Amino acid sequence: GPVIDLDLNNIQGDILSGFPKKTETNYFFGIDNPDLFKQQLKNFIPLVKTVAQVLKDRKKIDDHKNAPHLPGGKPHLIKLAGVNVGFSHAGLAKLGIVDTNLLDTAFLGGQAADAEGLGDPGSGTGPTFVPDWDAAFKGNQIHGSFLVAGDSHPTVDSKIREIEKIFGVNTPKSSICHILSISGDVRPGVESGHEHFGFLDGISNPLVIGFDQKIPPGPAPVHPGIVLLGRDGDNDSTGKPNVRDDWMVDGSFLVFRYLHQKVPEFNKFLSDNSLQLPGLSKKEGADLLGARLVGRWQSGAPVDLAPFEDDPDLVDHPDKVNSFEFTAERDFQKICPFAAHVRKTNPRADLEANGISIETKRILRRGIQFGPEVSKQEQREQRTIFARGLLFQCYQSSIVNGFQFIQKSWANNVNFPPFQKTPQVPGFDPIIGQGANRKLSGYDPNDPSKELALPADPWVVPRGGEYFFVPSIKGLNEKFVA
Ligand code: HEM
Question: How high is the mean pLDDT of the chain?
């Protein structure tokens, strides 16, 4: 194939490599004084961690893990922080940066303007629609976001102080105003890496040609232009390369979604609707239902490979954990419901065996959990008292093709995936699908035509979000600095 030279010193670090992190803060700000901001930004750019630097950090962590330590003692985490920055369309406008060639209608309007289309709850319709979101995310007041990740709260907090100092926050020489910070933490102990419903996350992300060295069996790797603007694969709908300005090249769009999760309610539903199959206890029937709604067991084992019983061994094998296509039973959904979350969001052979490529619809997911573990009281009362959920983040070269398409045209679309030779309507993605009269078919392996009504109050509740452009280092230096 063609030689692809990705400039890893030019790309912000979280995009391709993902910050190693135990905790992460999204620091949302407005720009009050654009000229001053452009001057101060010069001192900030050296703090931005690139992909090359993140790879070095990861090596440091590995070396440290493998270093000898006292018997019985655990190696400490090494102190590490990563900083990235992104700008909303309103932010670029405030800086006087013309972004016509970003070519993304979702980005141009901002996420609040997109909320009705995404199916978020709210009031009014059309131009008068107001999402039922936290106030900070309404009204296009967020101009940018500092993403600060690290090994601990003190490390992240001191990085944030350093950033605030550069921009003079809380002094008369301040160019920005702090709107709000949202912090997330990896869950404790054995739940580390699992999202709050209990499922292992971060398993299936697209591998990027020219970046990822090992390509285990699974979905085809994507061209770098699926994530990075101006690179091979960043094409328009006719397959012609998009025309980008120089400062846009190697940048990426970041979607942030503030998604609350109602964990006790989710668990109650699974228990109330436990699959009563021969030989299964009530608990096992509830676990099986959960696995069929997600398309993976809590362990991460794919339902397509382990349909009726968990097989956690699959998760320890990089050659197996993502090596499935939903081909075994495309027309019957005895093995995996059409609407299962991982099938809705990456339908694999459902489309590709019908000659439709999924490449342009793939996203690089990052993100982290927020909020405490479920308390005894919440468990007892089977209702949420303390806010918790997912700070969902994903990167793509087109929000319209990536996040927006997956949410609107797949997760919320009851007829997706298509082409099955059965009259059964797939229904909503039970985890993230939004709309009226939510239900899905295929939850019961013994009678896939049976439909399961989902609660009118969804378990995943969007409380805000924004779309950001995350420029390259060159882009920052050449376009954003005065
Ligand atoms: C995969 C949970 C929101 C897109 C997964 C997995 C879990 C999960 C457990 C399987 C692990 C993996 O393959 O990495 C959740 C939860 C969400 C949420 C609890 C909300 C609180 C979203 C949203 C989107 C999305 C908003 C996009 C619109 C995906 C994609 C995959 C995935 C693309 C990978 C599918 C594959 O390649 O097999 N999610 N997710 N998720 N999710 Fe979500």
Answer: 95
